UniProtKB/TrEMBL annotation:
The active site is at C73. It is an enzyme of class 2 (transferase). This is Cytosine-specific methyltransferase. InterPro entries: C5-Methyltransferase, C5_DNA_meth_AS, C5_MeTfrase, SAM-dependent_MTases_sf. Belongs to the class I-like SAM-binding methyltransferase superfamily. C5-methyltransferase family. The keyword Zinc does not apply. GO terms for molecular function: methyltransferase activity.
Amino acid sequence: MMKVVSLFSGAGGLDLGFSQAGFRIVYANEHDKDIWATYRLNHPATQLEAGSIVNIPESEIPDCDGIIGGPPCQSWSEGGARRGINDHRGQLFFEFIRVLRAKQPKFFLAENVSGMLAPRHREALENIKQTFTDSGYDVFFKLLNASHYGVSQDRERVIFIGFRKDLGIRYTFPAPFAERRCLRDVIGDLANSARPAHSKSKPNIDLVIPNHEYMTGGFSSIYMSRNRVRAWDEPSFTIQAGGRHAPIHPDAPKMEKLGQDAFRFVPGYEYRRLSVRECARIQGFPDDFVFLYNDVNQGYKMIGNAVAVGFAKVLAESVQMHLTQRD
């Protein structure tokens, strides 16, 4: 069984997908203290190094066959040569590279938001690819939508996959699935059992299904600037990292447009946010994956920042297939 190191692990959606594909996550690192308890509960066989990767020497990270994670790339400069690496926000991406260069595993996978493909980031993107190449890897990257790979959610992400050059692997990204999953497929059985959070965002202890509670409270003008409802026979909007941005449950009709950047809820219907558990289902987390938090918004944040589990599994299986064929 191939051993994998996970960096910037979050709650471990990427890790769970790789585990389901047959990899063993031997080590994980996460700096956010609000996530540690959730990660340890759901990944008991993985050593979690709690704290900033900046303070962890490469010698303390175990040897492995692969490194996975989502290093932030937002501060890479469009001008100059990799100026973002010297920006304090860019140091975390450099840390991923530092560990990769030290450990030289067979492969790596890095994930990031689709916004990095904007024209203003073109030079930064080339810098990132070149840095991976200079680290000894053949690099393959592509913008993929998780909804094409069994996930009931429109979720575009840039995926970087690299194989050590001496392996000579020419990677091909997996083909989209013929069938698409919709909201009814993954949350249809949860429609009538969600409970509101206490005091807008405090956990509700009277839950039959773990985390099946939703944030209450008002909606900002930004939220009301467009429709936030997908129907039962559609995939969800992207699950974002915060309860205030959670999509509306599909039992409600789509919002009415009043004018440019202005929508309203149709009178006479109940509009509620998706629950934490519904968001988790849409992201592919099983019901026995329990999120621990003191504020419901922390649950939404953990889930929204994660890689969709089924999407991660498909990518992991494709990596495994290429490595196996090579052997």
